[in-house]
Structure formats: structure tokens, C-alpha cells
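Intended use. Records like the one below are meant for learning the mapping from a protein sequence to its folded structure. Do not use them to infer anything beyond what is encoded.
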Amino acid sequence: VCDPALFKYGEYYYMGYTSTVFADGGGVGNNGFVGRSKSPTGPFEKWTGTGWGEHRTVNGKTLHWIGDPAPIVYFDENWREWGAGEFSFVVKDDVLYIYYTWTTHDTDGCFSSTTRVAVADITREDWPNTIEYKGVAVDRPRTGNDSYDVVFCDDLNKFVALSTDRRFTEDSFLAVYESDDGLRFKRVNEIKVNTSFMCHNCGMSGDYHHHIKSGDLMLLGYAYGNKWGKWGTRIHRYDFTLMDEDFYSEKELDNVKQDSSLWEREENM
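Structure written out for the chain above:
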């Protein structure tokens, strides 16, 4: 289980996550799941395909997450492929926009990696039953382009997506995409200056519906580090402005190359 994405609608927090129905698959054949809770710390009731979990009392304690979870996005291709997952959610006009990666090989054997989009009627308690697939939002470049986190910018009336590109490499950077309808995205900016090398898995802050607007404290973050499995998290403040053309002023500039340093573990920890 990995890649959590959270939003809130009404009294519930909803958390999407990546997991698999193949216990011995070694992390492939992934699908997208979701749970809900009235507290961001849980417990979360998992979507079972017909409802939200099952309530059961065991030894005087009520368990809320009992029940067989069912994917809301099911990877229906070769289970040996990586599959689907890495959610990002936006709520706009009572429509839930669901973004997720789809990583596989096409019928010709060529590697295929896309970010797909679906929509659902979030006003319904059983909204996973209303999910409607809308197509490919972005064809992800075969340069180590990572999953996308999406927000809606109220000031610009646009959906904005952020990803890392050339992830885990010396030349990694942040890539910015925009969309008017939330269904198809276009790359409009690449950010290298002040961005750490070896970055991956980025995200942006937003409100409960994953909106941003002027006056908000807007933060983006990503993992980084040149020691595998020993990553830090870097946080940046950011702002936005509307331009009439794509903006690539940093395309030929360099990112920040600074080796990771690990804190020494204290003996009494």
C-alpha cells in the first residue's frame, strides 16, 4: 500500500491509495482503492464495491474497516505490469476529478505510461458507483516522468498539474501542466533553479477540495537525495501568474546538486 491522496467533502475525509489484489505479485498488478473517515487520522472505512466497509464489534470494540476492499480503478490488463494507482483528486462544482497513472505495455510491446482521468458525482454517498472514465489526461514522457498532482487555481480558472521529470537523476526537474477542462493537459513550464537533483514524487498543497487561490500559503514538496532509500523531503513556497505563452526560461539552467547527509542516530532514541 502506498501513494496516499486525500480530499474532504461534507463530513468525510477520503483517502485514495495504491495497492494490489495479488498478494504474491511483488508489487505489480496495482489498482486504485479508497477509504473514508470523519477524522483524518481514521479509522478509514474501505470501499467494498457495494458500500463503505463493515462495522463489527469484537471483544467489546467496534471495528469500522472490516470488509473486503474493492478497487475503484481496476487494472484490467496483464497483471505482471505495474498497473494503476497514484491518485490525485480535485472537487469542482460537485464533480470529483480522479487522476491516476496507468503503466503497462501496449499491444506492440512498447512501454506505455499515461495519466488518466475519470469523474464521479461526489454528492452521492456511493460516488464510486458513478465513476466515468474520460480518457488520457497526459501521455507521460519516457524520460522518467513521475505521477501528477493536480490542483484547481480559482484565480486563473485552470487546472494545474505538477510532476517531476527525469526522476532519480542528476538532471531532474519539476514540470508544470495546465488544463481548462481538467480532462486534457499541456506542459507549459519547467522549473530547475532552486530545485534539488535526484527529485521524485512531488505534490502540492491545497484546500479540502484541492483548490488554490491568491492569499493562500501555497507549498509544493518532493522527495530527493542521492542515496537510494534514504531520501529527504524538500518544501518550497510558490506563486503563480498567467502568461500568454509557454515559459521555459530555465530550460538550459541547472538544478541544485548537493549530496545528501544523514543525521546520526542518537543512542537513546
